[in-house]
Design a protein that fits this description.
Shape: globular
Structural class: alpha/beta
Strand order of the largest sheet: 7-13-12-11-8-9-10
Helix content: 25-40%
Number of strands: 16
Largest sheet: 7 strands, mixed
Radius of gyration: 21 Å
Number of helices: 16
Length: 481
C-alpha cells in the first residue's frame, strides 16, 4: 500500500471519479428486496420522490438513504401481509430520508456535540489517520499509544505526537491494542487490500438458515395495528447502526427492548435512537444477568447485536446457541468489516470505515481539497441500520413460510461497497445541506424535551411512529409484559 496516501491520486475502478450517475432509487430498492429474498413486486407499493443531489456530496447519499429506508419499510409491510394485512402504499421522499439519516436531534433546545475533542483527523508523518475517541476508554488508549497522559493531554499534544508515526503503523498498533483508528486510503489503495477483496466477494448482506424449527405462530393483529405489532425484539446494540435498526423496527410496530448495562458507556444519540423502545439493564458479566437474557431471548422473535466480533458468543449468545435456545429466532449480527478476511475481527465505526475504504479521499478529491473530507452524514451507519431492519423482517417472512432459525449478517464496509456501486453525483458538492425544521417532531422524553426527525417512510394505512417515549438505560424492568 502506498504509505503517502496522496490526495491528488485519481480514484480508480468502475466507481471512481467518473462513474455513471446513480440509478433510479426504485431500481436500487428492488435490488435490495431481491437480496433479502423478498418478492420484487413489493417495490410497486413504494412511492419514491426526489433525486440526487439532496445533500452536499459527490456520492449518491440521498439514493442510499431513500432506498435503504424504503426497503426496510416494504419488508415490514411484507410481514404484515403474511399476517393478514392488506397491501398498502409507502411513500418515501429522498430529502426527508437524507435528513433523517443525518441523525439530527436536540435535547431541551441544545444540539449535543457529535464528536469528542480528540476524535477526528490527524496528520501523520506520511499521510492521515482518523481517531475515534467518543468513548473514554478509546480516547485514553489512543493517547497512551501516542505516549501522552490522558489526564493532561491537549488536542495539540496529540497532533504533534501523531506526526512521528507512519499512518499505517499507528493503524496497526491501534488495532493490536483494541483501539479504534485507521489510516486514510484512496479507493485504489483500499481495493488492493485482502479485506477489500473479501468484501467484494460477498453479497451486501446475508440471510442464512442456521437451525430447524416449525413456523412460529405470531400474535394476532388487532384492527389498525402496524405490521410488526407483537414482534419482540432484543436490541443489544449501542453505536449507531444497530440502534437505528431497532428504532426502525419499533416504528413499524415491534416491541423493542434495548438491553444495556450500568458499566457500558453510551453516546448522546441514545436519546434519539431509543425512541419507541423499552430500556433495561442486564449485566452479562454475571451469571444472573446471563440467566435474565436467556429468559428474555426465550420469548423474543428477533435478537439484534452489534458487539465486537465474538463478544456475545463467548457469553453463550452466539447465533447457533440462540437458535438452540429459542428455535425459530432471527439473529441479526452487525460488524464493521464483515465476517471474512483479515479484518473480520477488527472494531470500527462509520467515520473510520469511510476513511479506511477510500470515501474521505474521494470526497476530498471531488472537492479539490488538500485535506480528507468526510461524507455529510454517517450514511454507512444509517443505511446499515435499515439493512438490519430489512433483514430482520425478511427473515421473519421466511420463518413464517418455511420455518427454521435464521442469521442475518450486515457490515459497515459491505454497505460502503454498495454505496460506491451506486455511482457518483456530478455537481453534488455544490448542493446546500437541507434544513431539518420541516421534518422535526418535538416530544417529551426521559432525557428532556426531545426534538428529532420523524420517520420518512409514510405508510398509507398504518402510519409508522413511536408509541414509547425515549428513556435512559435501565428505566424499564428486564421483562416482557
Amino acid at each position: 500500500m502506498n504509505a503517502t496516501f496522496p490526495l491528488q491520486t485519481p480514484a480508480s475502478g468502475p466507481t471512481g471519479g467518473t462513474a455513471a450517475s446513480p440509478p433510479p432509487t426504485a431500481a436500487v430498492t428492488t435490488a435490495l428486496l431481491q437480496t433479502a429474498g423478498l418478492p420484487v413486486e413489493l417495490a410497486a407499493q413504494a412511492l419514491l420522490t426526489g433525486a440526487d443531489p439532496v445533500v452536499p456530496s459527490s456520492f449518491a447519499v440521498g439514493t442510499a438513504a431513500q432506498a435503504s429506508i424504503a426497503a426496510a419499510a416494504l419488508a415490514a409491510s411484507a410481514l404484515g401481509q403474511a399476517r393478514g394485512l392488506p397491501p398498502q402504499r409507502i411513500a418515501v421522499d429522498m430529502r426527508h430520508a437524507a435528513v433523517e439519516c443525518t441523525g439530527w436531534f436536540s435535547i431541551d433546545g441544545t444540539v449535543p456535540p457529535l464528536w469528542d475533542a480528540f476524535s477526528g483527523l490527524y496528520q501523520a508523518a506520511d499521510g492521515w489517520v482518523r481517531v475515534h475517541a467518543n468513548f473514554a476508554h478509546h480516547r485514553k488508549g489512543a493517547l497512551r499509544l501516542l505516549g501522552l497522559d490522558p489526564a493532561t493531554a491537549q488536542r495539540t499534544d496529540a497532533e504533534r505526537a501523531m506526526q512521528s508515526w507512519r499512518a499505517i503503523d499507528f493503524e496497526q498498533a491501534a488495532a493490536d491494542a483494541g483501539m479504534v483508528a485507521t489510516a486514510l486510503r484512496s479507493f485504489a489503495e483500499w481495493d488492493a487490500t485482502p479485506q477489500a477483496r473479501a468484501i467484494a466477494a460477498q453479497p451486501l448482506f446475508t440471510l442464512r438458515r442456521i437451525g430447524d424449527a416449525p413456523p412460529r405462530a405470531l400474535p394476532p393483529l388487532p384492527a389498525g395495528a402496524r405490521p410488526l405489532h407483537g414482534i419482540r425484539v432484543l436490541d443489544l446494540t449501542r453505536i449507531l447502526a444497530g440502534p437505528v435498526g431497532g428504532r426502525a423496527l419499533a416504528a413499524y410496530g415491534a416491541d423493542v427492548m434495548l438491553v444495556n448495562a450500568p458499566h457500558l458507556p453510551n453516546i448522546d444519540a441514545i436519546a434519539d435512537t431509543s425512541r419507541g423502545k423499552r430500556s433495561a439493564h442486564v449485566d452479562l458479566r454475571a451469571e444472573a444477568g446471563q440467566a435474565t437474557l436467556r429468559r428474555l431471548a426465550g420469548e423474543a422473535h428477533v435478537f439484534l447485536q452489534g458487539y465486537r466480533p465474538g463478544g456475545l458468543q463467548a457469553r453463550g449468545f452466539g447465533p447457533e446457541a440462540l437458535a438452540a435456545m429459542r428455535p425459530g429466532i432471527v439473529h441479526v449480527s452487525l460488524s464493521a468489516y464483515g465476517t471474512q478476511g483479515p479484518w473480520a475481527g477488527r472494531r470500527g465505526f462509520d467515520s473510520l470505515v469511510q476513511t479506511a475504504t477510500g470515501f474521505n479521499h474521494a470526497e476530498a478529491e471531488a472537492a479539490g481539497s488538500a485535506t480528507p473530507k468526510a461524507l455529510p452524514m454517517q450514511i454507512l451507519d444509517e443505511a446499515t441500520g435499515y439493512f438490519m431492519a430489512l433483514g430482520a423482517s425478511a427473515a421473519l417472512v421466511r420463518q413464517q413460510e418455511e420455518g427454521g432459525s435464521w442469521h442475518v449478517e450486515v457490515s459497515l464496509a459491505q454497505t460502503g461497497h454498495w454505496l460506491r456501486s451506486l455511482g457518483r453525483v456530478a455537481g453534488g458538492l455544490a448542493q446546500a445541506m437541507p434544513g431539518a425544521a420541516p421534518y422535526v417532531d418535538t416530544v417529551p422524553s426521559g432525557f428532556g424535551t426531545l426534538a428529532a426527525i420523524r420517520h420518512s417512510a409514510q405508510f398509507e394505512a398504518t402510519p409508522a411512529g413511536w408509541d414509547r417515549l425515549s428513556v435512559p438505560p435501565g428505566t424499564d424492568m428486564a421483562q416482557w409484559d
